[in-house]
């Protein structure tokens, strides 16, 4: 009896691995590009951006760990959300210019610009993901676009939004 359970478990694990491999094969390129834009590393061939690759690997590991519990959820959205959370956590600790195309932007501006314009995430969904009011998100997006167009000087440092009465 225990061998039957063991075989079923092995079959589930193989199916899970196949499904995840299929997802990664289809989404990893775009997710790596998203991670590269967030980390502001110069755009290079796949695998040549170590920070972006580490960020993506950690996000994919988390997605795989939650694969069975995420039935019905879009794994791309789940992984993108994990990228955003990990990036925000990492950049909160330290931010160093990298020389990438979005390097003139603050980390928050990069997050908003990548989510809204590159990933095409709806304003309400991006605001909820970043825990920002929609009007604040809109202002950050407009400021980011103005910076990239060269009509506004880049901000020297990131000042994260804090809701009134929020504790640190």
Shape: elongated
> What gyration radius follows from the Cα positions, in whole Å?
18 Å
The helix fraction, in percent, is 55-70%
Distance between the termini: 54 Å
How many DSSP H or I helices? 6
H/E element order = HHHHHH
Description of the molecule:
The protein is mostly helical. The chain has one domain: Butyryl-CoA Dehydrogenase, subunit A, domain 3 (Up-down Bundle), CATH 1.20.140. It contains six helices and no strands. The chain has helices at residues 2-39, 50-65, 75-93, 107-118, 123-130, 134-149. Helix 1 (2-39) packs antiparallel against helix 2 (50-65) and helix 2 crosses helix 3 (75-93). Residues 156-168 have low confidence and may be disordered.
Summarize the structure.
With 168 residues, this protein is an all-alpha fold. Helix content is 65%, strand content 0%.
Q: How is this fold's topology laid out?
A:
Blueprint (H helix, E strand, L loop, with lengths): L1 H38 L10 H16 L9 H19 L13 H12 L4 H8 L3 H16 L19
Helix pairs in contact: 1-2, 1-3, 1-4, 2-3, 4-6, 5-6
Structure characteristics:
168 residues; Butyryl-CoA Dehydrogenase, subunit A, domain 3; disordered C terminus
């Amino acid at each position: 009896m225990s061998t039957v359970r063991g075989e079923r478990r092995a079959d589930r694990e193989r199916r899970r691995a196949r499904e995840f491999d299929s997802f990664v094969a289809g989404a990893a390129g775009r997710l790596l590009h998203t991670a590269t834009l967030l980390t502001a590393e110069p755009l290079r061939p796949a695998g040549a951006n170590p920070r972006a690759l580490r960020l993506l690997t950690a996000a994919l590991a988390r997605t795989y760990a939650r694969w069975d519990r995420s039935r019905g959820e879009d794994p791309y959205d789940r992984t993108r959300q994990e990228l955003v959370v990990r990036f925000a956590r990492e950049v909160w600790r330290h931010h160093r210019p990298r020389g990438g195309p979005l390097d003139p932007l603050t980390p928050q501006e990069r997050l908003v610009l990548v989510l809204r314009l590159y990933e095409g995430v709806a304003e309400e969904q991006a605001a909820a993901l970043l825990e920002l009011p929609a009007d604040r998100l809109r202002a950050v997006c407009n400021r980011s676009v103005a910076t990239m167009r060269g009509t506004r000087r880049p901000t020297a440092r990131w000042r994260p939004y804090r809701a009134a009465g929020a504790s640190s």
